[in-house]
Design goal:
The protein is mainly beta. It is built from no helices and 14 strands. The strands form 5 sheets. The protein has a 5-stranded antiparallel sheet with strand order 6-4-11-7-8, with no helix packed on it. A 3-stranded antiparallel sheet has the order 5-10-9, with no helix packed on it. Strands 1-14 form a two-stranded antiparallel sheet. A hairpin with a 3-residue loop joins strand 9 and strand 10. The protein is elongated and about 90 Å long. It starts with 9 loop residues before the first strand and ends with a strand.
Length: about 140
């Protein structure tokens, strides 16, 4: 005996969300580090500036740079001019500049911006409608 299968045709509406409020708080933390290029830092094809050659905004010596995650970025300024990101590499131990065209005595500023202090909260819950399903046949 063959199996009989019912055939049902139906249409449904899409649920709709209305209202609701999301509050996002962004509190960036920016730190700056300063150093002068010296002859010992200039290599054959790059300039390697150890973290220990820098001071921070409070003029305190730096022992290491922070490890960057996806919530941070850094800028490098050489003699006050912003540099392209691709021209430098930052690790916790050093800043490497992909150039040898910077003479000794030139100031370098490393700026790190962190957005890890970002939070979002739903302060008013949205209203979501239920889908309407209509059976045609």
């Amino acid at each position: 005996m063959p199996v009989i299968k019912p055939i049902i045709t139906a249409v449904a509406s899409v649920p709709v969300a209305t209202g609701g409020t999301i509050t996002t708080t962004v509190t960036p933390i920016v730190t700056r580090y300063f150093a002068l290029v010296d002859e010992a830092m200039i290599g054959a094809d790059s300039i390697t500036m150890p973290a220990t050659s820098f001071i921070d905004d409070a003029e305190a010596p730096v022992t290491a740079f922070p490890a960057l995650t996806g919530a941070e970025y850094f800028n490098v300024y050489i003699n006050g001019m912003l540099q392209q990101l691709a021209l430098s590499t930052l690790t916790t131990a050093s800043l490497v500049l992909d150039t040898t065209d910077v003479p000794a005595g030139i100031p370098v500023l490393l700026e790190i911006a962190s957005f890890t202090n970002t939070a979002s909260a739903i302060t008013t819950q949205p209203t979501i409608s239920a889908p309407v399903i209509t059976i045609i046949s």
